[in-house]
Structures are given as C-alpha cells and as structure tokens.
C-alpha cells in the first residue's frame, strides 16, 4: 500500500536523517574545555554552561542534513554540539562573571568563568551575576540592589578534571524573539514576547550584537538600527529575511555573543536538567 504524500512528509520530519557519526556529549565537552587558555591553575574551579536552541521539526531536519553533508564545517564550530538522539543543539560558553556562594558569601567568576578556589564550601550552584551597563536582567530574573538573580539556581550537571573542578551547567532553552512555554502535554508552545524579547531587555534597550560590537558581516543590518539582533545569519547558510530561522543560528552574530558568555542569564521560567 502506498502511503499518502502528507504521511510521508510527516515521517520525514520525525525521523532523523543524520547518519554521520557525531562526538558523544562527554567527548565533545572534554574537547570544548581544551579550547580555553585559562589564566588560573588547572586545579581551580572553571564554570562552563550551555543552552539548548528551540527549533521546529523542519529546521531540525535541515540542520541534520547540513551536518551530514558538510561534516568538517560543522566540526569546526567548537562551541556547538548536536545530539541526534535528543535532536537538540547545544551552545556552550564560559559562565562569565557568574556568582556562586562560598562560606555564606557570593564569589564572582572571571570573564572565562574561572574561580580562584580549588573547592567551594557549598554546592557550587550558579545563583546570578552582578548588573552592569551591558547586562540589565530579563523578566525571568529577580533584580535587586545591583544583583541579577536567576529564578532557579543552576546546579552542576557534570564534572570533569582530576578533582572534579571543571563544572558544567544546564541553563535551559534559549530565549529568542519568540519565547515558549509548556502546554498541558508538556510540549513546547511558542508565544511572542511583545517587548522585543529577552536579548533586547537584557542589554538595556539594545541587542547583544550591538552592545558587544559583534558583526560577522553575513547580513546587512539596517543603518541606525538598535533592535535587530541577527541570529539567522550563521551556518549552514545565511537567511537575512527570516528572523526565526534557528538552524542558521550557529556562528551568527547572536551565537557569537552567547558563545562568549555574555547572555547566559536569559533563561526560561524553569531550568531543564540533563537526563
């Protein structure tokens, strides 16, 4: 019996097409940690985080096709990992200027997510960051007295290194111009952020690529604009007209800002722990 075209299309969207072997999550994270030139000794604590990127079934299939047909290009993007089983793309970053509790006080990490301590007398949860001119906080943060608090503290999900001093954190799903919430069945439901989204909020009325001077040159930004965060001009090809094209997020202007650790406090209502 020949299946209707509509059923075949649905099956193609639900079935991963990625056949090229990808590094395991453990191997990728180990390799990622080796990309940094840390300034403090190897035995001190280093904080690494990641976000997962929301994509539609079509975008997922398109991304898998690009990874399978252009594997060397994908492998060169050292801050992104794709899990073909979970069908989720992670973007990794140093947890820049993160605050953790130590002996009842808040200890601040460096721009590379480094702490001077060999151990923290506490659970090493990331609780927030200090407010700056560049980072103001978003709706899902609590902002008090110059501190940006995460709604939920982010716990360590994996540790590497001989003393377990390399800490990895799950910072949930990435906000975009279209955020999301969970429906009754647990599925992701998109909702439009009426005020321009968390990137615009977090940087005091400007977007990350403008604030940090990031312009990869892949799309022409309208002259004088301050709101247009170009997160669709990356790999595998630029799409300068579709702001919601998240398969082109890797190596885009916004990707670079996230991968440098600038925007990790932009998280959803609930942090998603790894399975």
Structural class: alpha+beta
Number of domains as seen in the coordinates: 1
What's the number of extended β-strand segments? 12
Helix content: 10-25%
Gyration radius, to the nearest Å? Answer: 19 Å
Mean pLDDT: 81
Low-confidence stretches: 5-16, 175-197, 269-275
In terms of DSSP E residues, the strand content is: 15-25%
Q: How widely separated are the two ends?
A: 39 Å
Q: What series of H and E elements makes up the topology? A: HHEHHEEEEEEEEEEEHHH
Shape: globular
Strands side by side in the biggest sheet = 2-3-1-10-9
For this entry, give a set of tags.
275 residues; alpha+beta; 7 helices; 12 strands; globular; signal
Short description:
With 275 residues, this protein is α+β, with helices and mostly antiparallel strands. It has helices at residues 5-14, 25-33, 57-69, 71-75, 198-202, 208-211, 253-259; strands at 46-53, 80-83, 88-94, 98-102, 105-108, 126-130, 141-144, 147-154, 156-160, 166-173, 178-182, 188-192.
């Amino acid at each position: 019996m020949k299946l209707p075209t509509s059923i075949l299309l649905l099956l193609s969207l639900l079935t991963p097409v990625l056949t090229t072997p990808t590094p395991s999550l453990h191997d990728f994270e180990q390799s990622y940690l080796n990309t940094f030139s840390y300034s403090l000794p190897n035995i001190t604590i280093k904080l690494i985080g990641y976000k997962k990127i929301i994509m539609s079934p079509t975008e997922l299939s398109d991304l898998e096709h690009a990874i399978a047909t252009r594997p060397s290009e994908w492998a060169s993007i050292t801050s992104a990992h794709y899990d073909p089983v979970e069908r989720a793309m992670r973007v990794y970053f140093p947890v820049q200027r993160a605050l953790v509790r130590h002996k009842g006080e808040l200890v601040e990490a460096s721009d590379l997510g480094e702490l001077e301590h060999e151990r923290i007398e506490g659970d090493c949860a990331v609780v927030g960051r200090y407010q700056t001119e560049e980072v103001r906080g978003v709706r899902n943060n609590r902002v008090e007295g110059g501190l940006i608090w995460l709604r939920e503290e982010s716990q360590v999900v994996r540790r590497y290194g001989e003393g377990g001093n390399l800490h990895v954190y799950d910072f949930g799903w990435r906000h975009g111009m279209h955020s999301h919430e969970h429906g009754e069945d647990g599925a992701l439901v998109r909702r439009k952020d009426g005020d321009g989204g968390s990137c615009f909020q977090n940087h005091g009325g400007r977007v990350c690529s403008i604030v940090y001077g990031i312009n990869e040159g892949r799309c022409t930004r309208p002259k004088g604009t301050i709101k247009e965060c170009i997160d669709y001009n990356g790999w595998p090809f630029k799409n300068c007209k579709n702001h919601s094209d998240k398969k082109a997020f890797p190596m885009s202007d916004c990707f670079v800002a996230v991968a440098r650790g600038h925007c990790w406090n932009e998280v959803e209502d609930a942090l998603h722990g790894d399975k």
